[in-house]
Amino acid sequence: MTVDTPATSRAARVLSRPITLNGLTVPNRIVMAPMTRMFSPGGVPGEDVRSYYARRAAAGVGLIVTEGTYVGHESAGQSDRVPRFHGEEQLAGWAKVAADVHEAGGTIVPQLWHIGMVRKDGDAPFPDAPAMGPSGLVTAGAEPTGKAMTQQDLDDVIAAFAQAAADAERIGFDGVEIHGAHGYLLDQFLWEGTNRRSDAYGGDPVARARFSAEVVAAVRERVSASFPVIFRYSQWKQQDYTARLAETPQELEAILAPLAAAGVDVFHASTRRYWLPEFEGSDLNLAGWTKKLTGKQAITVGSVGLDGDFTGAFAGEGSPVQGIDDLLDRLEAEEFDMVAVGRALLQDPEWAAKVLGGRVEELAPYDAASMKTLS
Length: 375
Ligand SMILES: Cc1cc2nc3c(=O)[nH]c(=O)nc-3n(C[C@H](O)[C@H](O)[C@H](O)COP(=O)(O)O)c2cc1C
Prior knowledge:
There is one protein chain. The protein is an alpha/beta fold. Helix content is about 35%, strand content about 15%. It has one domain: Aldolase class I (TIM Barrel, Alpha-Beta Barrel), CATH 3.20.20. Flavin mononucleotide binds near residues 182, 302 and 304.
């Protein structure tokens, strides 16, 4: 039986409002967070990947951000099962994903990804390609284990992101998300722990943001003016969950302002628990600060609907369901504009329909076994 309690009808009211991101109108505020699934052999997303995304769109997710997908640069990745965003067969597969999501009533952007120094020499899909990053460092304090990128490398990677964005628009996607988070290539430039360069791409926060800003500007140049460009970033790194790009709002502003000026429409501020304040003296979370400092729209993420953070999921940990009243308060107060949901949507393709329809008693706890299938 459907129970329409005051709290759940409020969820429908607050989350169901459409929103316009540059030229794209998204039917509601629910975003599927990008999640690597490794179900695309040869880098080609197939039938099962299509129905995985379409199922979630049909059940009320307003905007899908796909799993990270490699741009067309041979050093970009480390697996032949992660989908690629280059190559005829790969892009044909992606075009069908976008079409199916549209048919189901949703909108979709690919998350464009280069992993930088997280790659190891010899990794698939291009074993001869070198691992490279700003300074050849995989984490702070490490010895270099890869190549410090030359100007030619930087130009090639910028061109690869721009080409991927142009292809995304050409094959029917609604925008792009640039992956600048979690200790991968762009974040390796943003973070001083992995960026020891003494040229124009290293040094103070503005210089460290330069490479990302050039990627954004090149993307912007190759897509229509109305095509939304989302930039995902994080304080935390997979190499160090306690690492921070910015200790103060001023430092954060120094990093984000050049990205906003280069053409970012929406920032996706990746945190593990959305309810934690980012800086002392304010309750604003990272997305809240991002919106306040840049004036751009912001997406929040991190343990929405669950009470344990996602890092345990990789060790097989589950998580109980948690209410979202506080999230709705913040969304209603316009601290941020949209809410991305990760594991809860892995667990249950119907998560959005249940939350919007007041059927929260049907939500199941997160079980890490859901990472093993594409259901
Ligand atoms: C299986 C899995 C794969 C992920 N892959 C990506 C990815 O490709 N790109 C990315 O930016 N974040 C990735 N993340 C992080 C999620 O997008 C999200 O930020 C995180 O899971 C927190 O949200 P949640 O607490 O709702 O799960 C991944 C998370 C999980 C659990």
